[in-house]
Amino acid sequence: MNPSSVLPTSRWNLRGQTALVTGASKGIGAAIAAELLGLGATVVAVARTAADLEQQVAEWQQQGLPAHALAADVSTPAGRTQLLAEIAQRWPQVHLLINNVGTNIRKPTVAYSDEEYRHLLATNLDSAWELSRGVQPLLVAAGGGSIVNISSVAGLTHVRTGAIYGMTKAALVQLTRNLAVEWAGLNIRVNCVAPWYIRTPLAETVLQNEDFRRSVISRTPLGRVGEPEEVAAAVAFLCLPAAAYITGQTLAVDGGFTVNGFS
Predict the structure, then answer these.
(1) Can you say whether the dihedral through the CA atoms of 228, 233, 239, 243 is positive or negative?
(2) Which of 27, 91, 142, 220 is 20 to 30 A from residue 115's alpha carbon, by CA?
């Protein structure tokens, strides 16, 4: 008998679960939302730009998928407060939170302005910190759930993408560890995914430089840039009941970049 034929299918789907995904109008966030929808979850997609978000969500809805759009700038206290209030009113139970929203400004360390520093911290770190705390009661109301933070290999090792970006992504890794232990008794699992260069609008701005692209690929054992769907698959796995004994972990989706020594 094929062993897979006796595995309970409930371990490999998200039917009946509600997922909140930030930065969901494009790139990795949109791929994550689509992956979770395909596994049966109801997805509340969040992004700052309403027009882009509503267009993407409309495409999912036309396929009969249970997707909902909430426009909010989660880098700001007002945006987070608005979002959390609407979520609590419409979905009093949330099972999955994907802290995906992020941005970058690539500069030498001494060239950053105070405003740029605050903007990167607010977008990449404050959003995950406040949304995790704000959604926690809704996860508890659901009987537990899963948080996945989207970090970066820049939070694991040096990458010439900017010190502030690396700081925020490293902080997400540690936040993941702390919350995983603190909230384990509430049946809330917290994990992290750390991508390398992925074919997204944010990355394409630098990957268009052929010399830079060749440099990236030369450090990547699998010899290519990653796809958003490959990150989404890792996130989805960490959300599944099949991953119920995994918490506090950071999974690099990097084509082998972080283990590439001198060969």
Answers:
(1) negative
(2) 27
Q: Domain total for the chain?
A: 1
Q: Is 117 part of the annotated catalytic residue set? A: no
Residue 247 lies in a domain: yes
Residue at 260 is within a domain: no
In the set 112, 117, 165, 245, the catalytic residue is 165
Please list the pLDDT of the chain residue by residue as tens digits (263 residues).
Answer: 344 444 567 899 999 999 999 999 999 999 999 999 999 999 999 999 999 999 999 999 999 999 999 999 999 999 999 999 999 999 999 999 999 999 999 999 999 999 999 999 999 999 999 999 999 999 999 999 999 999 999 999 999 889 999 999 999 999 999 999 999 999 999 999 999 999 998 888 899 999 999 999 999 999 999 999 999 999 999 999 999 999 999 999 999 999 998 76
- Identify the bridge partners of residue 47 per DSSP, sorted by sequence position: 71
What CATH number is given to the structural domain containing 104? Answer: 3.40.50.720
Q: What is the DSSP letter of 209?
A: S
Which residues contact residue 105 at a Cβ distance below 8 angstroms, ignoring those fewer than 6 apart?
Answer: 112, 116, 119, 120, 162, 164, 165
Which DSSP state fits 226? B
pTM above 0.85, yes or no: yes
